[in-house]
Amino acid sequence: MAVTTRNRGEEWLARGGLRPTRQRLALAHLLVGDGHDRHVTAESLYAASNRSGAKVSLATVYNTLRAFCDAGLVQEVVVDGSRSYFDTRLDDHPHFYWEDSAELTDAPKDQLQIAGLPEAPQGTVISRVDVVIRLRRS
After folding, report:
1. What parts of the chain have a pLDDT lower than 50?
2. Domains assigned to the chain
3. What is the three-class DSSP state of 12?
């Protein structure tokens, strides 16, 4: 692991107030080590950790992704009731979900226009609006 890659993972964990355990550092390296945003499932991150030689169980990946969410380091994007992706890009932006490959990618934010939202029920506030545009090749 290059020094800059290691530092990026450690700094990322520190921003979330998380202790840099071996497992967290290994997963942080895979998620943000190269400075690019990622959309991962727990299973895809687990597979990437195996390919990298990191010894991390699938349960640890699930628990660590949940801790990353709770710390505000990633956001969960639910595509349907059974599939969640974890996005390292934290600003509000839409997504394309490619049904044929089960891939989630960023959609152009500047092309999205939301004209209005319904009023939130009394005693609540809207915390976030997720836009997932499902695509199928014609």
Report:
1. 1-2
2. 3-135 (1.10.10.10)
3. helix
